[in-house]
Amino acid sequence: MRARTLLAAGAVVLAGIVPAAAQETPVRGGTLNFSIAAEPPTYDCHASSTFAVIQRVAPHYSTVLKYEPHKYPNVVGDLAQSWTISPDNLAYTVKLHPNVQFHDGSILTSSDVKASYERIANPPAGINSARRDSMVKLASIETPDPLTVVFRLKEVDVAFLNNLASPWNCIYSAAKLKENPDFPARNVLGTGPFKFTGHVAGSHWTGERFENYFRKGHPYLDGFRAITMSTSATLNALAGKQVDAEFRGFSPPERDRLVRDLGKDAQVFEEPWLLHMLVTFNNEKPPFNDARVRRALSLAIDRWGGSASLGRISLLRNVGGILPPGSPYAATEEELVKLPGFGKDMAANRAEARRLLKEAGQENLSFTLANRTIAPYTANGIFLIDQWRQIGVKVDHQQLELAAYFSSMSSGNYEVIVDSFTDYSPDPNTGVIKYISTDRSPQAFSRHTDRKLDELFDLQAKTTDKVERRKLVRQLEARAMEQAYAVPFLYWHRIVVLNKRVHGWSMSPFHMIYQDLGDVWLSPAS
Amino acid sequence: MTDLASPARPAARPAYRPRSRVVTFVTMQPLGTAGLAIILLMAFAGIFAEWVSPYDPVINDFVAMLSPPSLEHPLGTDAFGRDILSRLIYGARTALAIGFISSFVGCTLGAAVGIASAYFGGRTDLLIQRFLEILLSFPIIVLALVVVAILGRNLVLGIDVNLICAIAVPIVPRVARVIRSSALSIREMPYIDAARAAGYSAPRIIFRHMAPNVSAPYLIMLTAYVAQAILLEASLSFLGLGVSEPLPAWGLMLSGSSSDFYREAPWMILFPGLAISLAVFAFNLFGDSLRDWLDPRLKT
């Protein structure tokens, strides 16, 4: 299987260089300059789901657990010194490291962990928790002593450890949250390796080494500077060695250009990405409240053709269903092609799409496709519009800046929107939340309610038998694709190019983990 | 016999045939004529794009992606296999439509403000001029960026009205200043005094008697600002704030994937760049010639 091979391979490809971080002795000092292509709409990890936030704030925060560097998806402790799981899988007891300090000098205790997780699970009025749905099985959080936290679940959640390792679940100060529950939206106070020193909107974000960081000897860097710049500017800056890194990813032609320009100073990492593009229909706006219209628009998309062609010019590459191709609960290619919109006979698909539109009285359908302005969203939009043109649908392309885009998406001010989703784990519990009912998942922007989908979601989440769980996920996927409230397009292929002087960074299939920079160090510039 | 010779007739003078203005313009202003020819060619291509262009400019053809110039695709194709020549032809429509409309709106509003400011004078003139100075203190691209960022997009008949506003707004103060200076001298003319004495209303004097007398600088600026508007539209599209993909626009063709492939497919940036340069050059040539043609001082 091509897809399975892709994810399993997870290969690190280097431009003639072998990663030798483990063997080399880290050097202290230096400032890492890296670029980010978008501005953060908030500083709050809990409220956000964009790299524009997490790649800036991750160096300032700690999480309870984290993914082990270079060994994804193994989980190790971050604030947790150790943890145990009760035999019935309903209690997770975490022992915290002692004397962990916040950047203001206050000591972290179990109540900070409790306050942070309660904010995620039950956000106060006016506070947005983007991953509230991942905590629905959390019954209570107990703090028997300042260094012990007990998470008690209502029922088994086979992915709960992933929640504790989520980079989004930053631990905030309970005292600050008590004063102002929205404190993290405009302030940065964590226990991470770097102290926040400033943010100039549109220009840069900076941090300096936190000398009292609880992992002794870390971080190695004196500080970091995240510079806001477009992808084209990043290419020039990396080639000209003005920045050392960009952690999100480049397209194949961009990679080739950088390798050519940087020569022996380039290191290239490639891996299939857990990130995928979706087409999300606003189910509250006619005619997108009609399943026939949604299914017709999904049927018209040639995903396999898109994979072959867009894969040459953009980060978009692999065809997948609601879960990343090759992951344990993902559909195989044989299963995928049976789903509406994934068949390879495009003439038949388009004929069926036209029939459905005619049946729905939407032969002259036209609508506005909302989208972002950055790569590969634009390429995605151009491709989709061309696909829909082939069944006689006229589409206006509305490209929005990040804040306006998220505002449109969350307020429902769109007809059809190009959405994307990635998670720190391909587990269905966190991986399919874009497809369940909107009242169950704040990240499901399709504004639909489908209790059958929710029921299947809940059922699979507590099924410990893997074969049985896989069957349930298939049923969920079939239902989601038949109804087509939101449909997957293509999965990304991550290509990261760093300057050779950057060491200790871990490549992963998810661009929002391993970004605390605690292990990163710089060799002297050549 | 008296030889009554018939009186000698003077030799017949050739009949006076005034040379047509067009012929005179062509003879006197060859560069301007060349500019006009280019403009007319672009306008023709834009208006009849459906018939002139060899391909649909938005159709993706991944088999032909990044093809170099050939008989099949004379100017090559882009990363989506779209024909560059067709996109340039349709792009001419976008550039000229937005360029002409923005320039017309900006120059007309500017002229109205400039004449009114000169006519009323006093405190009104003072206030208007200070406000215009504030607008003039912003570079033209910055002001356009601010307007487009505030207004967003608003498509009417396929044309972004807010983009037109964004381009027209920076033109207004510049035109108003020039027109005001012309209008100040016209205001002192006896026929304006006569009109006042006859009890004509201010709008009638402004629009009936003053406006026609500033038409020469107005026309010159209208032409010059079309070039500026085309350049501004291209800049805004390049920055992602103008026309959106997949609509063909010259500035947009220079941005996005063009920069990724500038080595492998230089035709992706070469031809749109040439089209923008040629259009701006043509309008500037024509504008300069028009100024020479209409200015009596330069005629002598």
Structure description:
- The complex is a heterodimer of chains A (526) and B (300).
- Chain A is α+β, with helices and mostly antiparallel strands and 526 residues long.
- Helices cover 30% and strands 22% of the residues of chain A.
- Chain A has 17 helices and 19 strands.
- Chain A has a 6-stranded mixed sheet with strand order 13-17-12-16-14-15.
- Chain A is globular.
- Chain A starts with a helix and ends with a strand.
- Chain B has 300 residues and is an all-alpha fold.
- Chain B has a single domain (47-54, 73-299), classed as Orthogonal Bundle (MetI-like fold).
- Helix content of chain B is 68%, strand content 1%.
- Chain B has 14 helices and 2 strands, in the order H-H-H-H-H-H-E-E-H-H-H-H-H-H-H-H.
- In chain B, strands 1-2 form a two-stranded antiparallel sheet.
- Chain B is globular.
- In chain B, 44% of the residues are buried.
The counted number of beta strands of chain A is: 19
- Output the strand order for the largest sheet of chain B: 1-2
Largest sheet of chain A: 6 strands, mixed
- Range of helix content of chain A: 25-40%
End-to-end gap of chain B: 58 Å
Tell me the greatest interface.
Answer: A-B, 26 and 23 residues
User: Which architecture of chain B does the CATH hierarchy give at level 2?
Assistant: Orthogonal Bundle
Shape designation of chain B: globular
- Extract low-pLDDT stretches of chain A: 1-22
Total number of distinct structural domains of chain B:
1
Alpha carbon gyration radius of chain A: 23 Å
Share of helical residues of chain B: 55-70%
Q: Assign an overall shape of chain A.
A: globular
| CATH homologous superfamily label of chain B | MetI-like
